[in-house]
Specification:
about 110 residues; mainly beta; four-stranded antiparallel beta sheet; 11 strands
């Protein structure tokens, strides 16, 4: 048994556990409503700034909703939402903007 971990459901093939005192994926009032491979869907009842507990990358962008994205403490992602409603955080990777360190030199690869 692991302290703070409780089984809440099981089938022949799966077990589902609840973690006591788990931190939410986004700081209130913002809530995470879905997570994909490269997206995080959010909802907020009002304009707010939140820390979303996904690792920050400069490739995160708001593709739904108005606001901005930046780094937060601990390597997490800070999202400012300018209006209530749904928002989507998505990875927007641009190969032309890829930077590499080669032999101590910073190279831009197009």
């Amino acid at each position: 048994r692991v302290p703070g971990l409780r089984e809440v459901w099981r089938s022949d093939d799966w077990r589902l556990y609840r973690l006591d005192d788990a931190a939410p994926l986004a700081t209130p009032p913002v809530r995470v409503t879905a997570i994909g491979l490269d997206t995080v869907d959010l909802t907020t009842p009002r304009a707010a700034t939140t820390v979303v507990r996904v690792r920050f990358t400069p490739y995160w962008a708001l593709t739904r909703g108005r606001g901005c994205v930046g780094p937060a403490g601990g390597g997490w992602t800070r999202v400012r939402l300018d209006a209530p409603g749904a928002a989507r955080l998505a990875i927007r990777f641009a190969p032309g903007a890829l930077l590499h360190f080669v032999g101590g030199h910073l190279l831009l690869i197009d």
